[in-house]
Amino acid sequence: MAILIALLLTLLVFAFVVTRPDGGYAVPGRGYREYRIEGFSSWLQGHIVDSKNWGAIRACLAESDVCSRLTRSYLTADQFFAGHISPLQQSGCCKPPTVCGYSYVSPTTWLNPANPTGDPDCYNWSNEPNQLCYNCNSCRAGLLGNLRKEWRKASTFLIVAAVVLIFVYVVACCAFKNAQTEDLFRRYKQGWA
Predict the structure, then answer these.
(1) Which interval of the chain is the signal sequence (predicted)?
(2) What b/e string do you get for 56-94 counting C-beta neighbours within 10 Å, with b at 16 or more?
């Protein structure tokens, strides 16, 4: 049981260290945040969004309805810019980075960048539904943002589990110690009787 508790605590520390930096920054005049891949831990960058894994993740994102849901939820630019959307959607999988200065048409259609050199991802943007910005670093950062959020939720559960396990372990140790003490007293009394 002590080994299980130690492993659980090690996993908790690892999860908090890896997910500590969030990579997000506020965008003036927007209800959402954007993310930069450099703002996340190097472990997450290396193991989650490296080129070996990204191809499969990108294909999965392109097949999902994560971006098409935006077009059903936000009908006007004001709704979209004030919306609180997920890191995956807000950071650049479904829209170009704000610094590019694209004009809003719909959540997944943007035209005429005012500052195409503002970010390398500006050149990766496409209005094609199966392309969008799935090859952008900002999309990878959005995935890390979502992953960080989910790991933080799981860590809350792990903390509760660790506290319960520690409590059960302490109670069990006390009960075992008491049982040994009772047995010792019983033998001691039998020796004098």
Answers:
(1) 1-15
(2) eebeebbeeebbeebbeebeeeeebeebebbbbbbbbbb
Euclidean distance between CA atoms 84 and 80, whole angstroms: 8
Measured CA to CA, the distance from residue 139 to residue 88 in angstroms comes to 6
Distance CA 32, CA 154 (A): 23
pTM of the shown model = 0.80
Structure tokens at 69: 């849901």
Report whether 104 contacts 80 (CB < 8 A): yes
Q: pLDDT digit string (tens) for 5-63? A: 899 899 999 988 888 888 888 888 888 888 888 888 888 888 877 778 888 888 998 89
Q: What is the pLDDT of residues 97-151, one digit of tens each?
A: 889 999 999 998 999 889 888 889 999 999 998 899 998 988 999 888 888 888 8
Strands (DSSP E) found in the chain: 24-26, 33-35, 103-106, 109-111
